[in-house]
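pls ignore typos typing on phone
2-phosphoglycolic acid + seq
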Amino acid sequence: MQRQYLVAGNWKMNGSLETNRSLITGIASQRTHCANVEVLVCPPAVYLAQVRELIDGHPINLGGQNVADQDKTGAFTGETHAAMLREMGCTYVIVGHSERRALYGETDAVVAAKFGVAQVAGLVPVLCLGETLEERDRDQTETVLARQLGAVLDRVGVGAFARAVIAYEPVWAIGTGRTASAGQAQAAHAFIRGLLAARDAKIAGSVRILYGGSVKPDNAAELFSSQDVDGGLIGGASLKSGDFMAICAAAQAQ
Ligand code: PGA
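k done
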C-alpha cells in the first residue's frame, strides 16, 4: 500500500504576526520541490486566522495543536471546540502531544475523548504516542505504546483510524537534539502498525505513522527511509522555512 508522506510542523507556543508571515512565505516559495509530499502547519490557535489567509492558494494544510475534549460548545473557559478549528480552516489537529500529557495532565482517557470529538467535527486527529526515557530504559516502550493506543482504540474502534494519523514521538527525543535511530523508530512504528493490524489489516496498512523528535534536515532522509515511517512531526526545525522544506525534500526523495 502506497502511503503519501506527510510532514507536519508543530510550531508549539512560538510565532508572531511577523515571523508567521515570513515562515509561510518561505514554505510556499519552496513548495514545488516536494510536490508529492503533504505539508501541514500547526500554529498557535490565535494565529489560525492569519495563517489561513497566508496559505490561501498554496498546497499547505492547516492544523490545530490542541482541542477541547468536550463534544458540545459552552462554558469551558480557555478551550477551543473542534468545530471552531474546522471553521477556521483546520483539517487536522494534534492530540495527545507529550507536552500536553506531561505539563497539562492529559490522561489516556482525555486524549481518547479529544480524538473522538475531533473526528466528529471532521478533523483528522494526529495522535501522538511515545515513551519517556525512564520507560524505555525499563523496557516498557511497547507496553506504553499499547496502553496509549489501546485507550483510543477502545473508545473509537479501529475503523476510526481510516481517518487518522499517528505520530510516534519518544519523549526523550523531543527538543533534546537526541533523535531515535532509524532502527529504533522503525521498530516502534512496526509495533504500532502491528497493534492495528491485529484488529484490521487494511486500515493498518493505510494509516500514516509519523516520527517526531529532533527531526532535522541532516537526519530526515535516514528516518524516512524506513518502511513504516511515513513522514515527520517537526517541532524546532519547523520554525525555519529552509530547514522545514529540506525535511520535506527528504520525504519527496524517498
Ligand atoms: P522537536 O519536537 O522536533 O523540536 O523535537 C517535535 C514535537 O514535539 O512534535
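The CA atoms of residues 159 and 203 lie 7 Å apart. The mean pLDDT is 97. more later
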